[in-house]
Amino acid sequence: MELGLKGKKALVTGSSAGLGAAAALALAQEGVEVTINGRDLKRLQKAGESIRKATGVEPRLAVGDVSKPEDVERITREAGRVDILVSNTGGPPPGDLMDHPQERWEEADRALLHSAINLTRAVISGMKERGWGRLVYMTSVGVLQPIDNLILSNTFRVGVVALCKTISNNYARFGITANCVCPGYTATERLWDLARKGAEMSGKTADEIINGFALSSPTGRIGKPEELAALITFLASEKAAYITGASIPVDGGLVKALI
Description:
Number of helices: 8
Distance between the termini: 28 Å
Number of strands: 7
CATH class: Alpha Beta
Mean pLDDT: 95
Helix content: 40-55%
CATH superfamily: NAD(P)-binding Rossmann-like Domain
Radius of gyration: 18 Å
Order of helices and strands: EHEHEHEHEHEHHHE
Low-confidence stretches: none
Shape: globular
Strand content: 5-15%
CATH architecture: 3-Layer(aba) Sandwich
Number of domains: 1
CATH topology: Rossmann fold
């Protein structure tokens, strides 16, 4: 399927590893000129090399922390024109309501919600002027069905959904779509971190925790990063121009809600 993405320019944040790296690679394979972002230069260079080997094209690197407004300003400036924004950040620590001090709530707010706000503010005017844009926000199935022990993620990612839905209402007439993708349990470093922390609390092994994640899905397995990346790439395409304001789970059927 021709997705009409050749020559478009994308900024994918949190893309030195995991789901962000998979999204950046999938877009690059469709001919998108990609800027990848992360806080660690060496990890970012490694991700960039993987894209170069797969596509023959060197992605632009933009080092910085998107939880900091001044870094967002610099990252988006270095990216140049942004036709496609994939707003992605790593998840905050697990825990319940009283497990987190006030400063950790504020950190999660900056990392999950305000990063998405600031990134969108930085790129949406250019999209409006050009009459074309794609905003894709990486959230979690926790916005559809809260996940126990992930109260920080559940709380602030829902704010991203509200942001996305409001933008979709106000900017669709300018050729800009805005959608959320909601990964379930997917094979990333983050999932293994959660499994190891769960093992410490439960007495189970990390492998047993991962197996439990897999069995919670009707598919009986955890997801692959490239499966989520395929959806992101489609949402960024010309073919998806009539899809906006959606929050789409990629979870193997984990969420049981009808809507």
